[in-house]
Amino acid sequence: MAAKVVLAFSGGLDTLIAIHWLRTVRNLRVVTFSAHLGQPDGMAPLGERAIALGASAAHVGDLRDTFLQEYAFRALRADAVYEGGYLLSSALTRPLIASELVRIAEEEGCEFVAHGCRGVGNDQIRFENCMRALAPDLTVLAPLRELKLQSTKDDVEYARTVGIPLTGIRREVLSIEQNLWGASIRLDPFLDPWGEAGRETHVMTTPPEEAPDKPAHVEIEFKKGIPVALDRKELPPIKLVDTLNKIAGRHAIGRLEMIENRISGVKSRELYEAPGAAALYAAHAALEEITLDKVSARVREILSREYARMVYDGLWFTPLRESVDSFFDRLQRDVNGTVRLKLYRGGMQISGRRGPRTLYRPDLLAHCGEEVFELAALPGGLPTPAPPPVTTEAADNPDSATADSSSALAPPTPPAPAPAHPAPAARTAAHGRRDRRHGE
Fold first, then answer.
1. Would you say residue 206 has pLDDT above 90?
2. 94 classed as catalytic
3. pTM for the full model?
């Protein structure tokens, strides 16, 4: 009997080609897995489509809640943003999908695991890093990489050659990946860094010029750094993020265009949308400003960048990521409270924040030019005093100025014993200091 392979199946043309290649070239029995992560077009037909294309079994899993609670919200707590902009909406799904593929491989007795990634880009590295960490005994297959298909145009030509039906395949959306946390959009005309993205390239947000002319105000409550309520109403994670996506998206929040450094170092122009996630990140950071102490906030900035790099590079299943998560588990214990945001035509403004244990103390600030607490009580103590001003007499006699400055800052120190045979110049200088001291 032929060996089995489990394939990550999205229903796109890339995975249709993968099923065909695995069956006809590698002579494998194909088991598919499709993850529901909040895609707008639903998941119902994917299992049937896989079976119609020759898969021996098809698994479909609703991973939305797990995705948010175990992956997206962990990144939110860590303030993980790749290169200052990307909120990791696609990168965060890869370790979750990989773990499910490994689980199904064990359940179905598969010797191989496959994905539809090309020989370029980040996802092949992310998936294979995760696979090696979780199940090094499984052999990873990458049909599109083996076929050297580098673009959507290559996919279409190959599909026509081998007779894969293209009914229902829309070329323009093949490079748009959307889930609850955001959308990653890469269209061929948008690769030129001088070209402007058209209105049709955005799927989650209204253009700013078409957004409502009145702002929206939302309140987001956090417990231990995790969002739990929207506008004073507690909501489960899926409902909270979905609702915030709609509100923020309507007001053009969360659009991003950036030139991004891929894992390989190649630069790529990317278009992202993350309306709900952008609002959550802004609110979470605002709450941390009143709940984290200065040193913790400084260390958090360093580890936030490293956390984002680990997610982006597919290094989720590593001791380092687990250790950094432990740091954020402790750090976020006191990140509790509510933040109010004002959303208006692509812009966000923090209009209020409060919490039960805040470090913000207006009573410790200066009033009428007077400090209400002792500077000596600060962690660093008093600042180093400046040297006293040089008087006219000191300017005429530099040695005197040195002595006066020293005596002003500390009691005079008795002179060290003169050496047995001091040099004449040294003896004269020493006697001069003693004479001045006696004169005082």
1. yes
2. yes
3. 0.83
